Amino acid sequence: MSDAVTRPVTTTSPGLLASLDPLLREWLPRQRWFAGKGRPVAGFTLVAATELLPAGGKLSLHHLLVQVHQPLTPAQGAPPAPGDCYQLLIGAREALPPRLAPALIGHVTDGPLAGRTVYEALYDPRPADVLLEALRTQARIGGLRFERDGQLEIRSGLVPRVGTAEQSNSSVVYGDTFILKLLRRIVPGVNPDLELPLALAHEGCPRVPPPAGWMSAELSGQTYVLGVLQPYLQGAADGWELALRELAKGQDFGAEARALGRATAEVHTALARALPTLTLGPPQLDVLVDGMTQRLDAAAQAVPALRPYAPELRTAFTALADLAADGCTWTAQRVHGDLHLGQCLRSPSGQWWLIDFEGEPAKPLAERRMPQPVVRDIAGMLRSFDYAAHSVQPRVSGWADTCRAAYCSGYAEITGRDPRTDPVLLRAYETDKAVYEVVYEARHRPGWLPVPLSAVRRLAAPQPS
Ligand SMILES: Nc1ncnc2c1ncn2[C@@H]1O[C@H](COP(=O)(O)OP(=O)(O)O)[C@@H](O)[C@H]1O
Ligand SMILES: O=P(O)(O)O[C@H]1O[C@H](CO)[C@@H](O[C@H]2O[C@H](CO)[C@@H](O)[C@H](O)[C@H]2O)[C@H](O)[C@H]1O
């Protein structure tokens, strides 16, 4: 199923997008959250425009949903393909104060904002406050709908600041009390980043911050989730930082890995209670294995360094299909979908929390919401221990293996099932994840490519029978 936005809606600001077009062409591809890197931008279509602070004032604020057209290949003359839809929050002022210089998009020469300077408005406290206030008061502005959970009080006047983490979306922290994540590439339908934390909150799962508010847009009869407000875990450190800190000291991370295994298992148990599960037999397994194989083929096509390993990697998937053909079945349920150390926060009291249930952002929503074996998340964490171990010099021998064992033991303490007792399933999912990472790194962080490639070499090596 495609996530494409099909029908643009009319705008209240004629000429606005045309006047921003040359600035956005230059600015958008430089944003970390822009998913279409490496392909030229051929043009834009305005999907919706909402004035959150009116034009004509000293500061105006424009909420835009913009479809970005990018030809699939940079071939001359290729027609622009219907593209991804992005959420933009554009501020416009006569002049930009120096503190907002890093947020500059550019100077507008014509159209309704002619003579003004436009910038990424999240960096500006006043626009950021507009969003919190809209959530607090459950506002409806144009097609935008702001909602909140009645149980959690949202105070007004909390001072906003933009989050500094490397991320796929953008976040604003309000007074160290709440964090609002604004989704950047938006798709129609139920978004797991809201759906799963809400379901977990209803289950009383204490490992996930409960949504306090959310914003969405109604477009052509479809809902687009645009942002989620959650309690901010003040003083929390993420698992990636903590792991690197321990590695730098040459210390093992076994106790934390075990606690992470327990936290993952608690979340999985609550998700299995809250949402449907299903049994995977040969027909479903074939679909799953086909998906893994196709992703591998596409990855090998895109990243030449993967090609020599592809035949051996394929055996990880055929071995799983063979088990299914022999009558093995597995249980599938809703999972996190992109679990790694950076998605785990440890609060100062030592509790682990899981965040960011969006799944792998590049996958279609329907696929991200499909029930899957829990091993999918477990494989993600195991890959993450391997990433951490590879990112420091000198290497700490056996560090990732200790984490792996402790994490799986912690998981088994809660569920009674140790993931290592199903090595074929685990290898298939670790392989699928490493292949995803090869593509992710080639596209976003080429300097990191050797990390998943070293895992690929290991996973492609002959397996003990
Ligand atoms: N509830 C929270 N409390 C404290 N920090 C958080 C919270 N949620 C997210 N963060 C911080 O924001 C960063 C980005 O959040 P995340 O949901 O992973 O966004 P993205 O999908 O854009 O990567 C996290 O790595 C973490 O540092
Ligand atoms: O932005 P997200 O957190 O949703 O996830 C994407 O970016 C991650 C990197 O920031 C990427 O994770 C990979 O690198 C991590 C170290 O930086 C490592 O811990 C993970 O195991 C590894 O997969 C993730 O894959 C990507 O979806």
TrEMBL record:
Enzyme superclass (EC): transferase
Catalytic activity line of the entry: D-maltose + ATP = alpha-maltose 1-phosphate + ADP + H(+)
Pfam families: APH, Mak_N_cap
InterPro entries membership: Aminoglycoside_PTrfase, Kinase-like_dom_sf, Mak_N_cap
Pathway(s) of this molecule: Glycan biosynthesis; glycogen biosynthesis
EC number per UniProt: 2.7.1.175
All copies of domain Aminoglycoside phosphotransferase, residue ranges: 225-413
Domain Maltokinase N-terminal cap, residue spans: 27-124
Keywords: ATP-binding, Carbohydrate metabolism, Glycogen biosynthesis, Glycogen metabolism, Kinase, Nucleotide-binding, Transferase
Family per similarity comment: Belongs to the aminoglycoside phosphotransferase family.
Subunit structure, interactors included: Monomer.
Name of the protein: Maltokinase
Protein source organism: Streptomyces broussonetiae
Lineage summary: Bacteria, Bacillati, Actinomycetota, Actinomycetes, Kitasatosporales
